[in-house]
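From the methods appendix. Each design record in this collection lists the tokenized structure first, followed by the designed amino acid sequence. Records were kept in a plain field format so they could be parsed without special tools. The example shown here is representative of the layout used throughout.

RECORD:
FOLD TOKENS (397 positions):
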């Protein structure tokens, strides 16, 4: 039987058969300014000639799957002829859900997967549990790990011991990639150019130019002192016009014009402290009025809530996943801050996988090939006989 692994994130779906490679596809629909009447689904985004003013229709709100109409359309597209050609009767599916998901959402998901699509068997699991499975598979001698998953809607910190999640240690921070992009849109709109409708473009700007500062206050001071060419943080970003410039890019430093006058036709964003002030919200959400801990304090708080004899194991096995882990300097800053907060006698080690976005999917792929996979899934016969009860019993691992 084929196994389809679907890490169903709020921004992208990571999907593929367990024998094949993963595909990362937008988990949403789009409408564009130019063709208002047409709705594009998932990777049809590539067909949009002019993605400026692109309007996203997301199945997730605040990290939870609430718009089933949109999600069904995305899944129909992914499971259909153009993409994965899923033979439901002979396919098992591993699908992710957020921590502390609502029962009503879980029941809707069971119904759709078993009754509408009619998958042969289903495993509903947290993405962090798949990451932990991946980690323990690569480091079988380790007993514990702490998964820090910073994605689109939230950042979750989840401790695992021998592949079991320790619920009392799970922490959630309401800061994710969506908030960072929105904040960058606000800063640019206030200082330079109205870009509040340009989510797609500004998200690209964020990914291209933002980084995590190692010493935030020092860097801010340095920016105030150094003007003009001495300012190594300042960068000029050429915005795409989607006719001659398909994708935005950073101007080489030697081409930067301090007078601000460029050749006609190029629209320039000049970025300075925004480059590191935006990702700083992961460390200090209170900077924009979110009264919560940053990631380093939340990690320490999570570990402190667990038995003391396990603390050393957790500090030494911290795994970073999710799209925000791709910011340059993120791992180093986190490790440095944890070193200053953790007890001096405990070593701290933070691991960033080569591909933090697909790390949970890879864990799902390993799980699909593990000998006890058949024990942890719910088959369609089980579901038809026992309903939601059997899913609740098996999936709350």
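DESIGN:
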């Amino acid at each position: 039987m084929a196994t389809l692994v679907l890490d169903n994130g709020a921004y992208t779906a990571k999907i593929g058969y367990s024998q094949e490679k993963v595909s990362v596809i937008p988990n949403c629909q789009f409408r564009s300014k130019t063709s208002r009447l047409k709705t594009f689904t998932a990777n049809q985004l590539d067909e949009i000639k002019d993605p400026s003013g692109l309007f996203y229709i997301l199945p997730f709100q605040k990290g939870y799957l609430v718009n089933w109409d949109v999600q069904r359309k995305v899944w129909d597209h992914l499971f259909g002829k153009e993409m994965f050609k899923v033979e439901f009767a002979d396919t098992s599916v591993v699908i992710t859900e957020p921590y502390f998901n609502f029962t009503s959402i879980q029941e809707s998901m069971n119904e759709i997967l078993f009754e509408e699509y009619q998958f042969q068997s289903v495993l509903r699991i947290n993405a962090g549990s798949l990451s932990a499975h991946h980690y323990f598979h690569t480091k079988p001698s380790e007993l514990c790990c702490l998964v820090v998953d910073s994605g689109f809607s939230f950042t979750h910190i989840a401790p695992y011991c021998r592949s079991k999640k320790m619920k009392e240690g799970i922490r959630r921070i309401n800061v994710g990639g969506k908030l960072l992009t929105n904040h960058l849109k606000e800063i640019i709109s206030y200082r330079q150019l109205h870009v509040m409708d340009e989510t797609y473009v500004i998200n690209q700007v964020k990914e291209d130019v933002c980084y995590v500062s190692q010493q935030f206050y020092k860097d801010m001071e340095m920016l105030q002192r150094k003007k003009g060419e001495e300012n190594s943080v300042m960068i000029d970003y050429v915005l795409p016009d989607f006719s001659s410039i398909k994708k935005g890019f950073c101007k080489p430093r030697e081409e930067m014009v301090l007078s601000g006058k460029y050749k006609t036709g190029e629209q320039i964003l000049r970025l300075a402290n925004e480059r590191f002030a935006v990702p700083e919200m992961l460390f200090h959400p209170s900077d924009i009025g979110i009264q919560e801990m940053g990631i380093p304090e939340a990690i320490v708080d999570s570990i402190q809530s667990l038995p003391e004899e396990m603390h050393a194991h957790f500090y030494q096995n911290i795994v970073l996943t999710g799209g925000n882990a791709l910011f340059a300097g993120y791992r180093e800053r986190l490790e440095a801050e944890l070193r200053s907060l953790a007890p001096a006698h405990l070593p701290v080690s933070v691991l960033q996988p080569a591909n933090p976005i697909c790390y949970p999917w890879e864990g799902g792929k390993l799980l699909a090939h593990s000998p006890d996979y058949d024990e942890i899934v719910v088959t369609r016969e089980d579901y038809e006989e026992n309903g939601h009860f059997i899913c609740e019993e098996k999936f709350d691992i």
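APPENDIX NOTE: The longest strand covers residues 2-8.
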